[in-house]
Amino acid sequence: MEALKSIIRDIPDFPKKGILFKDITPLLADGAAFQNMIEAFKARYQGKGIDQVVGIEARGFVFAAPLAYALGAGVTLVRKPDKLPHKTYKQTYALEYGTDALEIHQDALKPGQKILVIDDVLATGGTLAATALLIRTYFPEVEFHEAAFLMELGFLNGREKLGGLPVFSLLQY
Ligand code: AMP
């Protein structure tokens, strides 16, 4: 996994001053590294009965699709407002300045399904907390197996915001 770390590029002061942005595009562009990453997730979740892999817009989608394919699961999209065409449920959440929101189709998940949520980076945990609240509020009969991330910025203490939600990160920073 350390090999994956060496391919992820640090971009200082993006998208604003003081943020060290973890750029995954070199990893996505490296066929062998990308395959290794998806295989590592597959090894963890194969045989666990995952029905749906829920990807968070936008980079979560890049991981959700190949992992779902590898597991024989479906893909569910959690998107920014006004992107999904059918009836949606919505969860707003606080950002550093202002608020944002995430939406999911009302018919996206079925009672009894086991889901895995995936995104690229766990930073402050706000995005995952909103996604988990969205799912728990509107789909209470869905089993939340775990939230998976390529990397976790541990120094931001995102896990503390998640109320014990099971989280797995391939890489730790
Ligand atoms: P958060 O809600 O703070 O956990 O942030 C998670 C979302 O913001 C993820 O979807 C990431 O894509 C993005 N993000 C936050 N911090 C970074 C960072 N330092 N580098 C790259 N992406 C980030």
Give a quick summary of the entry.
The chain has helices spanning 2-7, 25-28, 31-45, 59-71, 126-138; strands at 9-12, 20-23, 52-56, 74-78, 88-94, 99-105, 114-122, 143-152, 167-172.
Strand pairing plus helix content: what structural class?
A: alpha/beta
Number of alpha- plus pi-helical segments: 5
CATH class: Alpha Beta
> What's the average pLDDT?
96
Named CATH architecture: 3-Layer(aba) Sandwich
Q: What can you tell me about this protein's structure?
A:
This protein has a single domain (48-172), classed as Rossmann fold. It is α/β, with parallel strands linked by helices. Strand 7 (114-122), helix 5 (126-138) and strand 8 form a beta-alpha-beta unit. It contains 5 helices and 9 strands, in the order H-E-E-H-H-E-H-E-E-E-E-H-E-E. The structure holds adenosine monophosphate. Residues 19-22, 56, 59, 119-127, 153, 158 line the site of adenosine monophosphate (AMP). The site of adenosine monophosphate has 17 residues, from strand 2, strand 7 and helix 5.
